[in-house]
Design goal:
alpha/beta, TIM Barrel, 5-stranded parallel β-sheet, binds zinc ion
């Protein structure tokens, strides 16, 4: 895909025609003026392939480096382990692999003021035991591990009872919450990997949600994905480069439900299980529509949100985002969706390290303008930059750790 240059030549600008039109746009119906200047060349010579286009901002604006957060941080959304068994017939999550070593993760946490990391994908049964032994038990207070559903059993007739009992076993083994990836709604099928997709509000999971309520285990849930992932991968798609690089992230076409259908099913779950605490990851799965997320928070007192991998969305609507943080300051949890290198390298907005945390702190604490939301030469989730919210201390304290302490049942 090539960039096309539009606009005026310097000659036209000097001729004074600029005042006739708005800045930066050619008049409708007229072909873009050619660049006649010898040092620019014609359009063909100056065209830059989109992946090579790395414009540097010429804005002279303040740059605040925030190396430490104003208050200690609990990062409620990280991935330090991952199921070594994919979705399929074999026991999901019972064998895990480490994505990072505690010895490599802890120095970053210490430097960046991260008191505790919540490893959401801690696996099931023996996998969970391995994750907890190497992180939570070896470094008390620094790591918290969540468990996951046994997806491979979801087609079994006794699955509802089995899953509720497995959750009790994993809770007894030290799991502090339950994590659901977008597997539910977008990957899990009636025969696990074949047949119709299983809906987010399928009744077979009701005993699982109720067991979470009984055991005071919050549910970190990821439903749906960015709106653009449900649209064609074409020149109108604002996540074009990202989807072009990861075509398997597209949920356009096939038998996928729409974003609206997925979120409606989630709402039915929230309504049916008012005693269960849900943390809607990625700003309640709809960071592009904060009004809708606010409505869900108003409707469902058992719903909270987390901001991982969405400062790119929040920061491009800084005034609305600031109002959102003011209105829902008791319901927003700090999270990054951090994944250690090398696995995290493919998604720079999530790669665990000092740079990632400094971006989050700068976004939440400063009023800096127009800066990168990810440590990458090209903004990976869309070609825009973000603006800081400059949140006041009482809101920062809640978002950085107080809300998480309450939801996770930790002593303050
Ligand atoms: Zn995640």
């Amino acid at each position: 895909m090539m960039m096309r240059r539009t606009g005026w030549s310097r000659r036209e600008w000097l001729a004074g025609t600029a005042a006739a039109f708005g800045a930066g746009c050619a008049p409708a119906g007229e072909a873009p003026a050619p660049f006649a200047d010898a040092d620019v060349g014609d359009a063909g010579e100056s065209a830059v392939a989109l992946p090579e286009f790395e414009p540097r901002s010429m804005l002279h604006v303040s740059e605040t480096r925030v190396e430490q957060p104003r208050f200690p941080v609990i990062d409620v959304h990280t991935h330090l382990t991952w199921s070594d068994v994919p979705l399929g017939p074999d026991p999901f999550g019972e064998r895990i692999r480490k994505l990072g070593e505690p010895s490599a993760v802890l120095p970053v946490m210490d430097r960046k003021g991260v008191r505790t990391m919540v490893n959401l994908t801690g696996g099931v049964g023996p996998g969970l035991m391995v994750a907890r032994r190497q992180f939570d038990e070896a470094h008390p207070g620094r790591f918290i591990t969540f468990t996951e559903p046994s997806w491979n059993r979801a087609a079994d007739p006794d699955y509802p009872r089995f899953q509720a009992e497995q959750l009790e076993r994993d809770h007894a083994a030290g799991a502090r919450g339950l994590k659901l990836t977008k597997t539910l709604g977008l990957y899990l099928r009636e025969q696990i990997t074949s047949g119709p997709l299983v809906a987010v509000d399928d009744a077979r999971f009701d005993p699982m949600w109720e067991t979470c309520a009984a055991l005071n285990m919050p549910v970190a849930i990821h439903v749906s994905d960015p709106e653009a992932f449900f649209l064609p991968i074409d020149r109108f798609n604002e996540r074009y480069e990202e989807l072009h690089a990861h075509p398997d992230w597209s949920f356009h076409g096939s038998d996928f439900p729409s974003n609206a259908e997925l979120l409606a099913a989630r709402d039915r779950v929230l309504a049916r299980h008012p005693g269960t605490t849900f943390i809607g990851l990625h700003v309640g799965h709809w960071a592009e529509n904060l009004a809708a997320v606010g409505e869900a928070l108003d409707r469902f007192p058992n719903f909270h949100v987390e901001i991982g991998a969405r400062v790119g969305e929040l920061g491009r609507q800084p005034r609305g985002a600031r109002r959102f943080f003011e209105a829902y300051q008791d319901r927003i949890l700090f999270g990054t969706d951090a994944i250690p290198s090398p696995e995290g390298d493919a998604t720079p907005q999530q790669v665990f390290g000092d740079a990632l945390y400094e971006i989050y702190y700068r976004f939440l604490e400063t009023e800096d303008e127009y800066f990168d939301y990810a440590p990458a030469p090209v903004p990976p989730q869309g070609r825009w930059r973000i603006h800081g919210l400059g949140l006041p201390e009482p809101i920062l304290r809640k978002v950085y750790h107080q809300n998480a302490e309450r939801v996770l049942g930790l002593a303050a």
